[in-house]
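hey so i finally got around to running both of the ones u sent me last week. sorry it took forever, my laptop kept dying halfway thru and i had to restart like 3 times lol. anyway pasting them below in the order u listed, first the sequence line then the structure token line for each. didnt double check formatting much so if smth looks off just lmk and ill redo it

first one:
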Amino acid sequence: MPSHTLSGHKGWVLCVEWEALERKLATGGHDGHVRLWDPKTGKALGDALKGHSKWVTSLAWEPIHLNPSAPRLASSSKDGTVRVWNTATRRCEYTLGGHTASVNVVRWGGGGLNSKGVLYTASSDRTVRIWDAEGGKLLHTLKDHAHWVTTLTLNTDFVLRTGPFDHIGKKPVSDDEAQAQALARYSNIVSSNGELLITGSDDHTLFLWSLFPSRTTTTENAAAAAERGGKLKPIARLTGHQRQVSHVAFSPDGRWAASAAFDNSVRVWDGRTGKFIATLRGHVGAVYRLAWSADSRMLVSASKDSTLKIWDLKTYKLKTDLPGHTDEVYCVDFVADKVVSGGRDRTVKIWKN
């Protein structure tokens, strides 16, 4: 049964995001409002954060290794802006303007080892922009996609989302310890490959980018190129999907990336080179959403065909078919050994392995 019902939005709730230490929950609505909640009590933390003139498309918390005590929150909107909120004062610190159409995704990345953090935004204006998270200065504009950019993923997504928590489950005793543990986990991924980005678009393609490599010399070159207005080249163009790409997700260990598309397929790529590895076929409708298991060994896909499918990444074959929803399945996540899904049939299902 629900432990709390969070009521306050005037309309559809479009996105929900846990702060990595689970102290707060943020939601974004069709009403253009961002709301903060205390997950222990289910009570709203103050009034809505207002400023967007259209609905909120995604939310991203500042990484714990950069700001353990009071992480800020970024919200992207159909209004073409991203707002960065100080969750303690509840004020908007700055607004990222520059996109000329809906900002579909915002991600708060680390930006490599010696950075104060960066914001990645993907937009229907066909560009991806990278911003310095300290003050909101534009660093790069990537213009290679030929249609709306609807999805993006970082090889650091999993460690940023889980912060100090690993599979051992030891709770940090202080913010400082949380910061140290989160930084160790982040550095572990970034030290070998830097922070990598994959973007997916309605142009049927994806691009793999290395904007913040692990080697400092290259970073200086990238900065110099940015100063000169130079165009940053993607490492690879990932082609093969026959229809719009709906979702892309790096595996937790960063070794693989998987993309889902309206062509009923899931494709698996090498997370470091972008090289094509395999196509996972079995769905008979558009594939909307993907989630990886924490050990990067399994992938689950959610589809318009009303099923979820769990794929084995050793064999690239279907491991488990999960019928049960009576209509399209819109969202899915892996939580330890369980799969959780939600769909058009208005039910949330929890599947035990």
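and the second one:
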Amino acid sequence: MGRGKMVLLPDEGEDMWHTYNIVMEGDRLRASTIRKVQQASVTGSSTSSRVRTTITIQVEAITFDTGACMLRVKGRNVEENQYIKMGAYHTVDLELNRKFTIFKEQWDSVTIERVETACDPAAHADLAAVVMQEGLAFVCLITSAMTVDRAKIVYNIPKKGKADDTQRKKAITKYYDQVMTAILRHLNFDVVKAVVIASPGFVKDQFFDHMMKNAVQTDNKLLLENKSKFVLVHSSSGFKHSLREVLEDPAVAMRLSDTKAAGETKALQQFMSLLASDPDRAYYGIKHVERANDSQAIETLLVSDTLFRSKDLAERQRYVRLVDSVKENGGEVRIFSSLHVSGEQLDQMTGVAALLRFPMPEIEEEDHSLDSDSE
């Protein structure tokens, strides 16, 4: 896996997130782009026009807009071009359904696996979630690689006893209608395997009853035919951070047993429970994890994709070597997306953790002896 090029054609927003994790500073990128060109006429006046051209840039900066799933890549032009001078800066907006080429000096195993994941149709759009509480709701899509907000609904509902009861009922009905409209607008039921509706109390149940009654009255075949895909679960609030507990719910886990998002959540749950019950078999932080790997002790490695986007090449290669080594020793590697709640949680633990095949109390003991030596 040395130097080489790869031509990619993104056909959905999630592919842009994969590309963000593939393109690194120092790579070269060839893509179609729009450039504003100034032209002087014989009379001396100048006109400007926008032309489409193909440019090859040396990548210096990459930004990803999670909401719009857009990727902007900035760098200097490194190939002759009739519209853009050599060395001139240009920003390329990578677009859906328009191919581009990435040139790398080193294609490592983690990057190759990322490309394979992006090309695997089974790894895509698994789950939708509606997290709600009275007057607030978030409609999210949870794919194998990311959690994307599709809609936020905020509606002012009068408190009980503060207004006439009919006013309150009308407000609740309008709020439910807005949530239902968002579900119909943003969810593709041909792809989504399950739709989780989560809330504290009975909000989820009352909303679901309202939506299904409405579907019967209006003969909404889409909702009626997909009724079995809805799963109602408890959450502590209607805010997006409640997604973590929602994904851990056994009813949801059962529905999503074959999806990557559920796999990540389950692996992190196993790590946390092991950390509490048998801490000599659960370690996090690169130094501890590398020591465990030196003894071929790692059963499952959990690592955040944030670490592979490091601008420090040596640091990035350190994590690639760790991943390769764990696989060679027969261990399982799970690369977590930092756009999932489970990935965010792993990032808080330095982005790398391991479940061991056997206890290694000496790792912790070595640290304590080092501390006492330094005192």
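quick thing i noticed on the 2nd:
The chain is about 35% helix and 30% strand.
anyway thats it, ttyl
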